[in-house]
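User: Hey, quick favor. My workstation is busy. Could you predict this chain's structure for me?
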Amino acid sequence: MNRLVILLLFSSVIFVASARASENESKIQAIAFDALALFDASPLGKEAATQFPGRGKQLAEDWRIRLFEYQWLRAAGSHYADFEQVAADALGYAARKNQVALNPEQRESLLSTLHQLRAYDDVKPALEKLKSSGCRLLLLSNMTPAMLQAAIRNSHLDGMFDAVLSTDQIHTYKPDPKAYQLGVDSVRLPRDRILFIPSAGWDLAGARWFGYPVWWLNRAAVAAEALDASPEPGGTSMSDLVRFLAFR
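Assistant: No problem, here it is.
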């Protein structure tokens, strides 16, 4: 084998290796965030504690649990109501359970907190780094479009997202596979090129079942769900996510 042939073969090997490395580096081309991975929902509990000292903490916890359970039940039963209505229904249940008499002003004050959410402190600088890397950023949430836009405005994140996707547009809720399909349809990328960032273990499982690669932003360091879905990789802050993706 002469030197020219050897040189051509060697060049071909280098080219293929470089192409594969480039492909691997660009595998994640978009990142889809659940809203509660970015926006702090603690004001709901604080408002409940203010309105009902001594009972507000339990009221807020029962409200939170039923808020998600009602979404899943409505999705499973094909009996849709939007997030705003589900939140109101769940609050009504929580008040009855805790024997709390909500007057109209108290009810409105609690529900209005859903439009007052703001991003955690680590969100904006991390999103700016991710966006500057060329990655497309999405919100993919069960919350209504109005609630998502309010959170974006409150957090001064206007223009940060390439798409703001609410499952309200298809009248279902995560973890329905049709909900996760919104991300694929929005950016027209294969699902394995969209990294999904959940805030909850059940959302992690739903996204993995759908076929997304997942990085769990587990801010409260809660236990993983027993749902046949690995909780790894993950972290407790947006800084951990940035380090994971090596966009530093």
